[in-house]
## 1
Amino acid sequence: MLRNLVVKGSGWQVQGVRFRHSTIPTTKMFINNEMVDSSSSEWIDLHNPATNEVVTRVPKCSQAEMEQAVEAAKAAFGSWSKTSILTRQQIMFKYQHIIRNNMKLLAENITKEQGKTLVDAEGDVLRGLQVVEHTCSITNLQLGEHLSGFAKDMDTYSIRQPLGVCAGITPFNFPAMIPLWMFPVAAVCGNTYVIKPSERDPGACMLLLDMLKEAGMPAGVVNCIHGTHDAVNFICDNPDIKAISFVGSDIAGKHIYERGSKNGKRVQSNMGAKNHGVIIPDASKENTLNQLVGAAFGAAGQRCMALSTAIFVGNANNWIPELIERSKQLKVNAGHEPGTDVGPVISPQSKNRILDIIEKSIKEGAKCILDGRNITVPGYERGNFVGPTILTNVTTDMTCYKEEVFGPVLVILSVDTMDEAINIINRNPYGNGTAIFTTNGATARKFVSEVDVGQVGVNVPIPVPLPMFSFTGSRGSFLGDANFYGKQGINFYTQIKTVTQMWREQDATDTRAAVSMPV
Ligand code: NAD
């Protein structure tokens, strides 16, 4: 039983010097159902974003260690892919139960390593848990098709079979949810797995793997390595890995998609975003303003589905002063402090990048009507805090519009008509999410039909589909064919085999071989 494995220190090396009796814990690898110490010579310090104290050290696994993880997955595939689907389903039933009983433990780890508030961290776990719950329907999800008697004594049927060893590479912003989009879906289909969680907060993933072992998952089915670019390139190049799931930034996603595809692998790559919320003057004001504030500043804006750009149409622009008042009421503090609305951003580098974007945009003509740049949080003076910030007078050529800010910054554009808003959204390269706020059904219907974005909310600011559907970001936010989770996730992690069979009671009486196609 883990729960204490990731907090035990066992020494680390810095520039070839080994410190054996450090009190700073190290993050383990997970190979063959064991938490294993890395003997790497390169380690990454992981800091609590609220204090910048070192929480743990994460190894950059060596080539030999990463190969060991793939070998474990390869060895387990033979028996796991033949394990009955009912057995795989039963493990998922147990797994969802264990995760549900440990939500608080997982949330505490997420807050410590990633910074988000405890309540929001539980939401992170819950959205991943829902994917695990959905995998319990694998007996339906993995059904094939059958057409009986399409010719005399002949049938065709298709079956969905696992691919082999698959791999996942995850970002920092959802340390529980995104790993849970990946290995449970792959494993329940009969694949084995190597996951490389974000080096910035792997703790939740390690806890989840320990819980998977407790649920009865056999050794070698899911394994975990750590690292950065070298680990990613190892995954893209290893010939035993058949498919890669990636979630993260554009630069990494494009690289992984290209390198993995070139090596003949199936790749699904979810990347960056710029999500617009369109506010029509007939919208319900109270609801809309609250939704906007929550979706722009929740998780300190570090969500790929954050509503980071608001487009106010016509008279709705008069609501902006009230939006500012509501945003001012948000409490910025460490994620574990009661009542916190906005926690720190992930790192000092990320904070500086956000401040630079704000500064540059002001120089380009944006007006900073709520300025969270100089905030200090008593007791957490060294934390990476940025308060809610609102920029108006923004145009589409400004830095704050062109870049994904990934911080608590709401960018506001003003237009006269919904058509102009749709035009702006459809010209933006990203297609992850968007939302419209209106009380008019015809207006909403027109928006849904004309906007070129993969996930659309109508009076719903963050329209992330539950796992009976799939996460369908589009255009610049996604590379690949099959999306994450839902039926598409099952398609991604399986290949179709189609069987055409003829069973006759007696041998055919034809005396010659048929050499032409049947007509
Ligand atoms: P990131 O790309 O920096 O890191 C993601 C993973 O890729 C990590 O495991 C990291 O080790 C690896 N990596 C980082 N840089 C790399 C490079 N140059 N080459 C190869 N591998 C590299 O992303 P992040 O900062 O952890 O996460 C934030 C980003 O993820 C945002 O852009 C956000 O929009 C995006 N995101 C997208 C979705 C989605 O579903 N579309 C969901 C969550 C986050």
Note: Residues 169-174, 196, 198-199, 228-229, 232, 247-249, 251-252, 255, 270-273, 304, 404, 406, 432, 471, 473, 477 surround nicotinamide-adenine-dinucleotide (CB under 6 Å).
## 2
Amino acid sequence: MTTVSNAEYRGVWVFIEQVAGEPAPVSWELLGAGRQLADALGVELAGVLLGQGVAGLVSEAWAYGADRVYLVEDPVLGPYRTAPYARALVELVQRYRPEILLLGATSLGRDLSGAVATALGTGLTADCTGLNIDPATRLLEQTRPVFGGNVMATILCQRHRPQMATVRPRVMPLPPRQEGRQGELVRVGIALKEEEALATVLKVIEEKGKAIYLDRAEIIVAGGRGLGSRENLRLLEELAGVLGGTLGASRAAVEAGWLPPEYQVGQTGITVRPKVYFAIGISGAIQHLVGMQNSEVIVAINKDPEAPIFKVATYGIIGDFQEVVPALTEEFRRQLA
Ligand code: FAD
């Protein structure tokens, strides 16, 4: 086996995730983060797009900052399966040798990144909240919370390449879309066989009911233990209804069974970055804050003036939510009529 020195690896790659041709927005967020890393290193930023009939996304990747897109289209890559996706990505890495490879910390990204890092024998830092280049060493500084969010650790992958990291949706800002921006397209053929896929997709069953996409919501009305009961959620639903917002919850509210787990915001829930986040009866524990503190405007409603949520709030209202929330709903209804 020939050994390749780390210096032979160049460039920053972002995996462009798509399901049935629908791109995961975290891919564009990562192109924004990847641009800064590539500029700091003085190298190119590339997107990697795997699938079938997905070439339409190439111009989107250019528009969000990719200088080049590696495209592998193959019927075996139609529905996502770990084995062929991992095989294609591993082969691309071995052929073109990027020094950094970023993926979204979605269910698909978490599955694929682990398989690829294992096959390549390199390191992987999951759920990073910060990515930087150390100019002295050119190493990727991968920062993420550890020990329940009380400590931030910066992790380096010194000996192996590529340096791999995943980032949750909405942790990085969406870069501006540059309409008409052009880049290079590299179509790559990889000999994939259906019988090596290890799994067959028999049927895709769409989830019934209203799917919630908290990480894409522009207005979130979140409730915590301070609501006291599931019945009181009605007041938050009314406020969300008037504003066209989505409900959210602290872990305490989820554990109380007032809302299902997919509504949980925070370290072990979803990271959100809405235009407006209402935190109602939520104390502001660090594990909750890490999931929502990047919201553009935070409105905190709490009867305890010392509640830590007020430290991150744009507007703080000290009071009982049973009085404050209906008054806000009424006023918004009047203003928006
Ligand atoms: P509390 O801390 O009990 O706060 C309730 C608040 O409501 C208080 O501030 C109180 O003053 C206020 N209140 C009470 N009555 C009223 C009223 N009538 N009007 C107005 N305000 C009122 N938590 C998360 O949210 N998300 C996570 O992802 C998460 N992950 C975790 C991971 C780990 C490893 C650990 C250890 C913990 C995690 N937690 C998470 C839990 C977290 O530490 C807190 O316990 C939790 O966020 C508290 O929820 P809360 O703010 O709703 O409840």
Note: The chain has a mean pLDDT of 95.
## 3
Amino acid sequence: RAKDAGRGTWRAYTSELTTAARNHLKVATELREAVAQGDLVVYYQPLVDASTGDIIAAEALARWHHSDYGWVPPDQFIPVAEETDLILGLGEWVLTTAVAQVASWRRQGLRLPRLSVNLSPRQLHQRDLADTVGGILAHSGLEPSVLELEITENAFLEEQIRTGGLLDQLHGRGVTLAIDDFGTGYASLAYLKHLPVDRIKLDRSFVQGLPTDNADLAISRSVAALGQSLDVGIVAEGVEGPEQAGCLADLGIAELQGFYFGRPLPAGTFTDFLQSGPRRRPESC
Ligand code: C2E
Ligand code: MG
Ligand code: MG
Ligand code: MG
């Protein structure tokens, strides 16, 4: 709803942003203020079990409510934040907020087995990241295995991230790791052999054309097989309709995420969603 209402203002913001491209400092400054003033919000999108439709996880997604431009989507501000150290504070804020939210749901008797939080490459250069993450989890009382961190393939282009041992440290604490937007990056698949990857998120560009597009079908089938042989879980992203859902379930993909099962929602609405009864169940195609 907010998105629809804000569509015009987004565009205004987008063109404004292009004009301001020479002036990243302004955006960065506003974003810094936004973080400090609490103008950022975390939305939650469900991930469901492909065979039962049960919610098995939520992905935390940052939103910026700008006083002049309305809702600004993450694609417009995460890249700006990533160019500065701002992403570090923002990323930690999202993590802290989302972990506290899951702990609060749990106190209300609403069990969410897993929380996914996106991590930017710059965060993976923080030597104390594993301690920070460990501290946030300890404070919440949640067991570390509740948390999954999502990293895109391009992070593995950086030698230090591949070999620095930070991913092993995080994994050693019980946090799981997922590769986000799988298939769209530039890294070689070698990282799957050496790094503690628990899950692969098949990018939505390969889900879009299902079940009719032969290339999408071949790619989705191959990724499902890769997951089975490597014993890595697979999530399909961007599932928008029942045909896609059914097709992915038939391919043996265990978890599905997309508008068909639920859009990203603010915590209050997601609470209702967690409480509500029957889910959409994927039907065979
Ligand atoms: P992502 O991590 O791949 O997140 C999934 C994106 O796909 C979300 O976009 C979500 O709204 C969108 N999506 C989900 N289901 C569907 C669907 O069925 N169809 C379509 N067309 N889209 C769908 P969103 O929230 O706009 O976020 C965009 C990207 O911004 C994220 O992609 C992630 O890379 C980044 N991002 C968002 N929040 C954070 C954050 O807290 N930290 C970092 N580092 N990055 C973030
Ligand atoms: Mg993600
Ligand atoms: Mg993704
Ligand atoms: Mg994405």
Note: Residues 45, 61-62, 73-75, 78, 91, 94, 118, 120, 150, 180-181, 204, 238-240, 257-259, 264 surround C2E (ligand 1) (CB under 6 Å).
